[in-house]
Every structure is written in structure tokens, then in C-alpha cells.
Amino acid sequence: MSGGAPHVVVVGRQNVGKSTLVNRLLGRREAIAHGEPGVTRDRLEVEATWRGRRFVVIDTAGYRHRASGVEALAVEQADRAMVDADVILLVVDAQTGITDEDGALARRLRRARVPVLLIANKVDSSRDESDATAFHTLGLGDPLAVSGLHGRGAGELLDGIVDLLPDEPEVEDAEPSEPRFALVGRPNVGKSSLFNRLVGQERSVVFEEAGTTRDAVDAVIEWPGGPVRFVDTAGMRRQIKTRGVEYFSFVRATEAIERAHVAILVIDAEQGFTAEDKKIANRVMDMGRAFVVVANKWDLVEDKDDLYRSLRDAIVTFAKATVMRTSASTGRGVHRLPPVLLDLHQRWTSRATTSTVNEVLHRAQRERPTPRATGSLHYATQVSTGPPSFVVFGGGDAPDRGYRRYLENRIRAAFDLDGVPIRLRFRARGRSRA
């Protein structure tokens, strides 16, 4: 994570309430908490601050002895997180008592080189505190009785975490300033594989099963120009089809787009630009995020030339976004993405001078006069970036949709804003007009 913040890794077997506890420590709902075992698969990293100390809380998949398939890959993610940990929280379920998996994890953690806190979760009242004492036999010291659901003991737990953090200069809590890129798309189009290629390590669980990623997974990496942040998200289905865990995954993906500067819309090249892809593209544009379309699995396409032409034609109405062709499984084409992403970010944050904007506005009106009800547009200026937003003054009624789109395309061409949504507002005779 950015700034070298200490890592606090939360581990434990499935369904002991790790994600609920993480949400309690953060004071907000970041991890997906659900009664179904095994909901968390990727490791979720979120920054937290307590008593002026900043640290990263890492929620991991539930440990399962002799796991196989996708669960084995998820356990590997937890293993990698523990290797990099500064403090480890072993969460156990006080209501069910010690299990074989608790014992196996405890034996491993007794050899850990970093501090380990034993957390007896689901101690929801003082009557349940005696249930926590049985965990002394795990050999990890006194268990701290907490209730992630109700918040009992959360303050004491945060105090204990801060007391064990390694010494470092205190850092002010601030919004990350690095460029932020979110990978979005339908389930099973290869987002996690592409994410791992881009960040250079196995950070997301990749498995041949649709819907493997359920949380948004962050990674900050160093590029020649400085740090950048990538976010892998869950596959986005139509909201009407999402229920339970899938609904929260949809919400997380939407929030990831809102936090990002540039969205990487990953599509399955064999299936083309589907109706679901178009809905996701519209959502990205509505949120004002720059985006690039990545046609993944390109190595499986037979008629490549025809498909590429049809994709470009279909995507031209979406801010004239660029189409990139990749194969995340082989790495083909992935190396061309970084400069495109950085260029998109630069254009998304670019600002044009007022004089240049007015030159574009007046030239556009000379070549195509405004509708009669609108009258002449006198003056325009860019008022903000990310996305580039412009206010146009003068005229009567705001222009119709066709003329607004015409002005938007002229501005996009003049300032090289392909792939970048543009916001236009019209103010007529002293009144605000959208």
C-alpha cells in the first residue's frame, strides 16, 4: 500500500465473522459480510486510522484444511498476506469453540515472527465471556473477547493493534493522490487475470468459475512516473439479477468506479460488445470516468479484422473510447496498456484555456448555427477537471440533444478527449440551464 503503512492481517477459518469484524474496525462496510461460508475469496486491503496511526487492514479468505479448487487459491492469498504482515489477528468463534482448523492455524502462528493477537469473536454479551477462556489452550496468549456484530471490545482491539504496530513517523490521513484505474466488466471476462498481469503478481484469485471475485481488490504499484493504483472488481450483472452476496459485489464494483479516475472495461472478445457491456459503459460515463475498452481473449478470435472494425464502430458513441486487444492468459498486448492508461488519466485531468474554448465554440457555431430557440452562444469556459466540465453562456433555451452532442464532439476533437466524458452546462440570460 501507499506510504509504507503497516499491514494488519485478519485470518481465521470460514464463518468466524472476520469480515464483520473488519467492517467494525473500519467503521464502515467495506468487506462483504454474509452468513454463507467462504464469501471472502480475495484479500481486501483498506486503510484505517486510530489514535493518529495509519495502518492497512487486510481481510483474507477463510482458512480451510486440505482446501481444493478455488478455495485452495484463496488460502494461498491469505498465506501471502501473512508473509507481509506486521501484525496478525487470528479470529476464532467463541460460540462454537476450538476446531481442528483453529488448532492448525494456531500451531502455524506460534512460529510467526510478528505479533499475533487472538480474537474470540461473537462474544455478544458478558454472559458469553467465559466461552472465550477456552482458547487459552491455543498457546497464543489471552484471547480478547469481542463482538464484531455489536461492537463490544472494538476500541480495546484497536488499542491493542496500535500498541503492536512497528514504529514509524505519523502520516496525515489523506485521499490517495496516485492515478487510480478500476477494472470493470461482466463476470468471467478475464478481469482478474488482466489485473494480475498489470500489477505483476498473483493478487486476485483466478479460477474457471464465473463470479470468483466478490470484493474490490486494490494494489498500488510503482511505475516509472510514480505509484499507480489498480482495483479489480466483481463481475457486474444487471442489477435486477443480483441478490444476496452478488448485490453487495455489484455495490462494491460501483463504488470502485466512483473512486477511480479511469475505468478499464474488459469484454470477452469472442462475444463482442454485448448489451451488458454497453450498460456498464453507460454507467462509467454517467459517473464521469475516463475509460478504455479492452477486448480480452483476443487470441481465441478467428476473424480478427472484421471483429476489430465492428467493435470500433459499436464503441464510437461511447466518448469515442479506444479499443485495446489483449490476451491476459498469454500476456499478449498487455504491455501496451500502461501508456494508454496514463495518457487517459492526463487527459481526464487536463484543463483548456478560456480563450481556446471560446475559439472552438465560435468556430462550431459558424459551421453549424445553433437552433433558433437557443440563439447565439456568447462565451464558454472550463470550470473543472476529472471529468472536464464546461459552462456555456448566452442564448435562450438550452440547445437540443443533437446540438449538445455536436458541441461535445467538437470540444472532444479540439482537446483530444477521446475516451473522456465531457460535462456541458448552459446558462441563458442569467439563469442556470442544464
Shape: elongated
Strand content: 15-25%
- Separation, N- and C-terminal Cα atoms: 41 Å
- Look at the structure and name the CATH superfamily of the largest domain: P-loop containing nucleotide triphosphate hydrolases
Number of helices: 12
Structure in words:
It is a single chain. The protein is elongated, with a radius of gyration of 25 Å. Helix content is 32%, strand content 22%. The chain has helices at 18-26, 69-83, 100-109, 129-132, 154-164, 191-199, 245-259, 275-286, 304-315, 337-348, 354-367, 401-414, and strands at 7-11, 44-50, 53-59, 87-93, 116-121, 144-145, 180-185, 217-223, 226-232, 262-268, 290-296, 323-325, 377-384, 389-394, 423-428, 431-433. The chain is α/β, with parallel strands linked by helices and 434 residues long. Strand 4 (87-93), helix 3 (100-109) and strand 5 (116-121) form a beta-alpha-beta unit. The strands form three sheets. It has a six-stranded mixed sheet with strand order 2-3-1-4-5-6, sandwiched between helices. A six-stranded mixed sheet has the order 8-9-7-10-11-12, with helices on both faces. It is built from twelve helices and 16 strands. Residues 32-41, 169-176, 203-215, 239-248 and 430-434 have low confidence and may be disordered. It has three domains: 2-164, P-loop containing nucleotide triphosphate hydrolases (Rossmann fold, 3-Layer(aba) Sandwich); 180-348, P-loop containing nucleotide triphosphate hydrolases (Rossmann fold, 3-Layer(aba) Sandwich), CATH 3.40.50; 354-433, K homology (KH) domain (GMP Synthetase, Chain A, domain 3). The two termini are 41 Å apart. Helix 11 crosses helix 12.
